Batch of 2 targets.
Target 1
Amino acid sequence: MSFIPLQPDLPLGSPHERSDAARNRERLLSAARELVDEFGAEALTMDALACKAKVGKGTVFRRFGSRAGLMMTLLSDAESDFQRAFMFGPPPLGPGASPADRLTAFGEGRIYFVLENGELLKAAGAATRNRFDVPATKLSHRHMEVLLREAGIADPWVMAMSLTYALDPERIVDDVRVRGISPKRLTDSWRDVVARLMRTT
Amino acid sequence: MSFIPLQPDLPLGSPHERSDAARNRERLLSAARELVDEFGAEALTMDALACKAKVGKGTVFRRFGSRAGLMMTLLSDAESDFQRAFMFGPPPLGPGASPADRLTAFGEGRIYFVLENGELLKAAGAATRNRFDVPATKLSHRHMEVLLREAGIADPWVMAMSLTYALDPERIVDDVRVRGISPKRLTDSWRDVVARLMRTT
DNA sequence: ATACTAAACGGACCACGGTCCGCTTTCTAT
DNA sequence: ATAGAAAGCGGACCGTGGTCCGTTTAGTAT
């Protein structure tokens, strides 16, 4: 169960889901996962998905709203895990450590999370009007905002936004895969940024 | 004249530009500017542009390569000015001030520049494979990298990338226009970030 | 003037995301 | 069992960015 709606799976809170709808949802999800596994998320087209799932195109869009919605749905399990970890898990990611340590751990975790789910995340972020629409991004922003406020930053909302964009999936994935930066350099630099932003001297 | 190719206007370095080509380029540029003035950059479609310029669609793409290329061409004058200012202009933007002051001034300048040319910049950034492909973005990254290195940052390349994304046009424009953040809050926060990143104590 | 060539042209064509709406299926009330 | 309503379905259709290739045209060499 997820504490924040991580995916906009529109007709899901409905009282009773019709049996054919449920069947089609399963068909679509497993077809989507197969296509992503085989060809990668970027190569997935909504037509191909509809075709492979033996379902009309309208059904795909009724279910997921958009390509971005589909990607979010595909991501939601992994996102929920990460979310749980930084909200309720053990320190330093979860509560109990200092804001600086938690923020460091958060960024590192996010970087590795992005590197594991990069294609999906990029696809989810693209094609949504502003990338901030992705619910998980909003939550991540809020989390950083709280940590920054605890650390006495003057405008935690705006600074959290700066950091959100610094952790953008597109940025991270392209740094590593296109520009050849090692994940370690990314996390080291993140650690440095947080240390410098938050030191109180 | 620009010191770095700010726009990928493909067939321009050619020895002799054919007269019809020159005429069509003028027609396209003025048509594009009219359309942007009247309806905004986001609303500009390549078909409409071709139609308004009385030119075939193929010609539009031969000239600019892509929608992003067109936007960059439209931007190139303004970009050149800004570029000149931070490379050769008076301090604190240009050389002569401390790295921290120059970086502060650079970010502030960039924020206002983005707010003036936001639509064009967003349009130029979207639809290019990675947003880092925009030549002006590369240059801006390089500039920040140099400043950060002078200030003794451990991995200036990566940190400059973080700051590049924090100054992303999409981010800035949406913060101001969608999320209602005042430009002043943006520049104040930028100033705070740079001060904290660069203080040597 | 003429013939030749390479550049430039134009618009039919394609792929993809997304919408629309008439038809079908499932569920519920009787 | 039957009928009615609502949820769901499917695929034709649209707009947009981008490609392709047969045709036209500006420049050049004679």
Note: Residues 11, 14, 18, 20-21, 24, 50, 55-59, 62 of chain A lie near DNA strand D (CB under 10 Å from a C1').
Target 2
Amino acid sequence: MANLKALADHLGLSQATVSRALNGYETVNADTRKRVEAAARQLNYRPNTAARRLATGRANAVGIVMPAEDGRLVDPHFADFLAGLTRTLAARDIDIVMTASPRETSIATYRRFASTGKVDGFVISFPKRNDPRIEDLLDLAFPFVVHGQCGATRPYSYYDIDNEGAFARATELLCQLGHQRIGVLNGEPDAMFTVQRRSGIARARRSFGLPEDPALTVEGPMTEEAGFREMSRMLSLPLPPTAILCSSMILALGAQRAIREAGLGIGRDVSVISHDDGLSSLKTENFSVPLTVTRAPIRQAGTRIAGMLTDLIDGRGVQTHTAPVDLIVRGSTAPPPK
Amino acid sequence: MANLKALADHLGLSQATVSRALNGYETVNADTRKRVEAAARQLNYRPNTAARRLATGRANAVGIVMPAEDGRLVDPHFADFLAGLTRTLAARDIDIVMTASPRETSIATYRRFASTGKVDGFVISFPKRNDPRIEDLLDLAFPFVVHGQCGATRPYSYYDIDNEGAFARATELLCQLGHQRIGVLNGEPDAMFTVQRRSGIARARRSFGLPEDPALTVEGPMTEEAGFREMSRMLSLPLPPTAILCSSMILALGAQRAIREAGLGIGRDVSVISHDDGLSSLKTENFSVPLTVTRAPIRQAGTRIAGMLTDLIDGRGVQTHTAPVDLIVRGSTAPPPK
DNA sequence: GACGTTGCTGAAAGCGCTTTCTATCTTATC
DNA sequence: GATAAGATAGAAAGCGCTTTCAGCAACGTC
């Protein structure tokens, strides 16, 4: 394994010149650079990462801390997000280093990663409302970008989608079609996107003079099982919903099963609108009845956040971005049955 | 940000002693150690990772290189696998560093990661038959564990599940129930698990004297869409299958839709067996008709591979493990209709 | 011919740890 | 009381790179 010294000796040059040649400094003679590059290739030289980090103080890596709660569900969307993130960062030669930590101790984990120089910044996933991680990282003045929002008192970088607007429009659509009893299958109550969607729905309801209906609103885990259970329950109510809003395709899958098993038809008896993160393996347009959705590809979030974070690390200031969400109307929405 | 020197000065000790105290060497006085530990906590000292790596030559990190093909689908199972892996490694204070690379250049990426000292070992995912990565890493004599197998000429560490046996047993079950025309929805033809399952099915077929049926066997992408398309095609054949074997739950989801849209009933008209990786968000027991499955939780693979890899890095030799696969019989399998 | 310039390269000082080797002080041993 | 052994701590040499500062030609300029 050739190191810089070996390469320099081989070339009869100093380590300084070789280092400069390889790192694209202007002050090195063109011929010398050529020679150095050729020799580096020939000796298969690769600069040691730890040494370089130690000398430059930069890790060229960003961190992700996954919640390690054992009972917790692993979001299948995460793979798609990660794909977008990793590809974009890889193109800039930045690694992503991942670890897991229980939520209670995650702040300590972030601090350790920051203060040991393992990473130059973080991507914060699954933010909760008033997430303590954000305030802490702001105190540390360490770069990070949040995937979602969390309502901090100071400015911070985030990429979010217009959850509020999307679910307001979805609700409006249902209202315009004449629905009065609209069920909601939302995410965990303290997840920020749940809060945003809740408020979008409420806004639309108000503008149509539709009261809240607690019995038809559920906030909890986003599994197929939960979707099925809660939808079944709602359908057995004396006044069942004629439409349902789902916060994820997985919930919609469960709702679909409940509707079907109740002997009802999607779009005919019950309208369904789901949020769609644009997963590649399972598409909402391919449901038995193609789903009307609010759509925002989650992979784009990964791509964009990668850019925002490298900008931030390079000192280019806080950015925020709220991506628009498309409302795509398909066969699962129709006026309520008479 | 306190460093070792500052801490040593503060204590009036040498860096050497402080370092030893903090790293659990026996040759340091018990009182001294206490003092050092207290001061370290007080000054919030954390050893710099890069410096430590440079000094010890160990990265305390393992690498994962994701295939970066843009058209490629991101496997939702990957999130579950990663969860198991990351948690186990985090408990041992080992980071996982991830990057993405196109398949053609992935070998170069592995080499770069290995020779720059970024990681101490690799987890190889999605192995193909005779995967060139394995031979290359063996040549480099760099530690790695494969998730799956790939048929190299030299011994290497892997964790696999008994794909061959599982699909043999699944096929046998169908044969015993009296099925003669068994369709197969398998994965990409060059993925190793596809090969293994193919051969398990063939073995069971032979033992029941059942000929191969190319028109009823499909190998390709594991998406809901593909499952639907191919199952629909098979059902429109003059002699449609009375049973279908699916290599993933996502394919089964598509097959289910096709069967339903053909006006047929799962378990009644068409038996379905799927492989089940035990994803937490969508469970095969919760299909409208609970699915008979070959089951092997993919998260366990992550957990176990983490252990195998750290063992390997610590010089504890090559291990191989083939996990058994349960065959869980539920309502989706029955004798063929008369 | 003295004097800035410009272009290129080398010496050497870190970056923050670990670890070997050495030094000192105690204590046990005869 | 001399000596060996044991316990503890420090000095210093690296680990492999980057980067500052200095140096040396060669060159044009007055």
Note: Residues 3-5, 15-16, 19-20, 23, 47-48, 50-56 of chain B lie near DNA strand C (CB under 10 Å from a C1').
